[in-house]
Known about the structure:
mainly alpha; 2 domains; 79% helix
Amino acid sequence: MADRPSRVDRLNTPGRGWQKMSLPKVSVDSDSFGRLAEWVARVMGTARFLLWMTVFVIVWITLNVVGLFGAKWDPYPFILLNLAFSTQASYAAPLILLAQNRQDARDRISLEEDRRAAAQSRADMEFLAREIASLRMNVGELATRDYIRATLRNELRDLLAELSRMDADEHDDAMRRDLPDPR
């Protein structure tokens, strides 16, 4: 009996009693539960839900004030209706928060992907801008088509002038050969 702690020791030490009494473990698929929470948030956030809830409240109050067949199951101040609304709110609020958290997580992932894509686009644009600047500098060093044409025309004129001069010189030489020597 020395192995068991005394009652006072058990009460003074937190968590020891709970080790033996464990609650049953419930396994819930978080994704399915999350989809349920999103569905609840989507349904409760519509005008149709508010309209049907209003109709339900009006019918509830009317039946309990008038008393259908003498039955008034929730007389004024409608405690049962208030309890139903409190229960609905106590379940709806965490479900709506869960749906918002899931949406925030999706938005965060989407934002990270958008930032990554924007950074890649920015890097691509900077690379292309550098390439275009490099090409412009290299094109500035290259001869343009008009410059080459003008240079070729000038060279052709020079060659034609030289050929004309050579033809004229040859013609003069031939003429000198054909003339008798005055000596």
